[in-house]
Automatic annotation (TrEMBL):
SMART domains: LRR_SD22 (SM00365), LRR_TYP (SM00369). PROSITE patterns: LRR. This is Uncharacterized protein. InterPro entries: Dev_Immune_Receptor (IPR050328), Leu-rich_rpt (IPR001611), Leu-rich_rpt_typical-subtyp (IPR003591), LRR_dom_sf (IPR032675). The keyword Signal applies.
Amino acid sequence: ILEPGILEGLSSVEYLTIESNEIEVIKPYSFIGLSNLVFLHLSKNKITELSNNTFSGLENVRYLYLEDTNLKTVNAGAFLGLSNLTLLHLSNNNIVQIHSDAFVRLEKLETLLLGKNQIKAISADVFKPLSNLISLQLSENELDNLESDVLTALVNLIHLDLPGNKIKQLPEGILRPLKSLGSLYFGNNDIKVFTRKTIPKAPPLLYLYLNNGNIEEIESDAFEDLKLLSQIHLNDNKIKHLDNKTFAGLNGLYYIDLSNNDISDLNPQLFYNLPSLRRVVLDWNNIEPNALEEIYKRYPEFIHLI
């Protein structure tokens, strides 16, 4: 147990790590007096819950690490007092529920890591205070759906990480407010047929990761609304065939990874009229030798084969 007064006399300390202990409870105001603290590491403990005022007095802390601590619930106001926090690491816990006011007054937060938990749903207001968030990780949870307005406040978000959930498609309009979004990690979800509706009209998305999933089919107009893509990662799926128009109109596309699928028939026309294309990875497929030879003959400078 961490109790008030236990850390008195450490006012000049900037870096404090209390990792890999048996801490189960942090009493409110336990960190009072650590006015210059910037880094706080509490990972690998047995903390199941955070109370209001747990972090009171830590206005200068910018980095808080709480991964692998057995956290189950993130209560309202759990991080009050951390007004300058820029990174919050909550991955690899047992979080099922996040209170709608869990992140109040964290306006300076830029990176929020919530991967490898058991989150099944997120209320629309959870991320509302986080208008300066740049990177959001929600990978390897139990999400099967997201509310259409759950990301509305994240106008500065650049990286969105959603792989390893049970999502079939993103709701219409969910990405529209994310004017700065550049990278979307969406592999290993419950997608068998990738359509234009799977990722509805998005902002200027540049990097799309759909790898390590169960995709069997990609409809010919699936990327119609993603015209600015420069990289598409489709490796480690179950794709058997690609329509010749699958990548049509993606003039900025320079990298395609199709490795480790079940592709047997591949027409060279698939890569026509892609002026920026510089690299295509086709390793570990079942492409007919004649088709491979034809593709390599036409595009020897950027086709990668084992």
